[in-house]
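Notes, p. 3: input format for complexes.
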Amino acid sequence: MIRSDVHTQSTPSLASIEAKVDSGERLNREDGQFLFETPDIWSVCALADRVRRRLHGDRAFYNVNRHLNYSNICALSCSFCAFYRKKGEDGAYERDLDDIRAEARSAAAAGATEMHIVGGLHPWLKFDYYTDMLRAIREEAPALHLKAFTAVEIVHLAKISKRGRDGIDGIREVLRELKDAGLGSLPGGGAEVFDDRVHDEAFKGKIRHDAWMDVHQAAHELGIHTNATMLYGHVESPRERVSHFMLLREQQDATLVVWAQRMGITTPDAPCHDGIDRPSVVLTGPDSMYPQDRQPTNEQCNTGWYQCCIPLPFVPDDSALESLYGPSGLENLRTIAVARLMFDNVPHMKAFWIMQTLPMAQIMLQSAGADDIDGTVVWYDITKVEGSGTHQETTVPDLHRTIREAGLEPVERDTLYRRVHRDGATWTADSVTLQ
Ligand code: SF4
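Output follows (435 residues plus iron/sulfur cluster):
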């Protein structure tokens, strides 16, 4: 539904928010803040679960994937990060193309549908390394979808490749060249919290939110789907989390409005109620365009958008912010529930089990609005929860059991949320996204 704006203001309460959720009316900034502050977390989770069931019924999604961290050497030193090393430091590594080819063959042999590729901002690797890496994986495993590079990596590649006349020009050109080399989508990491105070305190030196959003907008314009993350539970406040959600929601609106208009979908009389004078697209209401017959498809308009939102809990261990506690279990549940309720224009909400833990991800699926759990992963070097090592693998039977015990039906999807049909390591995907 495309909504033009009529602004209403009232003091939020759980009852007023429930009424909005039931009618498909957009929640505003005050509602978001209230949801983060009310002691009644279980009601917040129940509302998020209601939206999630409206969207996806009893289905919960997972994929068979591999994560590849090509290098942990990074020019920056973000204080929440335990992944980076300086060149020559103990534990610093960069993987060569032979090694990466072997990883691609192993992933294909195991039936993976996706390779998720991220790394540090390596000060000396040339741009060719990145395009060669994508081409090498493509040659070894042509069916693998390559979900690669966070926005800060793309900005770094634009700088080192000296593409384009200015910042955004270079970003577009780099994305084009990476797409030609096999890039399928962007994973959405590195967003942290879109606030200058938080930026300066926890990840000064990294790009600010406007540059992060520029990269994603350029990707969407090139028909590349992306995801959106938020790293929470460190130095940010609930108000700053809500602002983060609002900025992403506005950007998704702008993208989906273009898509919907090109698709000839308009209902201009419906109210928006978010206080901003612009049209919006709500996907989660009872009469919305998802998941029935009007779900986003880019076949006709070649536009990308945020497919999925992934709230990521801060893991303090081994970082410069180790003295902080990180978010509690209840805060994890609340945050994904509020994200589900605020992101009325993003189809999927992921409980990333690697950072949430599998038991917490299971509860999020069952009762806090998550519909996706990520995949088998295998190797993951970015964060290590509770002393886990780089080998962080789960199996498909484990994922099935986790989902079934939550009372839901496991559905294997590919990166673009198309149903996967599998015979052992051999698989095909439907041509349309799941309904
Ligand atoms: S978060 Fe990313 S950019 Fe910051 S230090 Fe870690 S690897 Fe480098």
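The pocket of iron/sulfur cluster is lined by residues 74, 76-78, 81, 83-84, 120-121, 152, 206 (CB under 6 Å).
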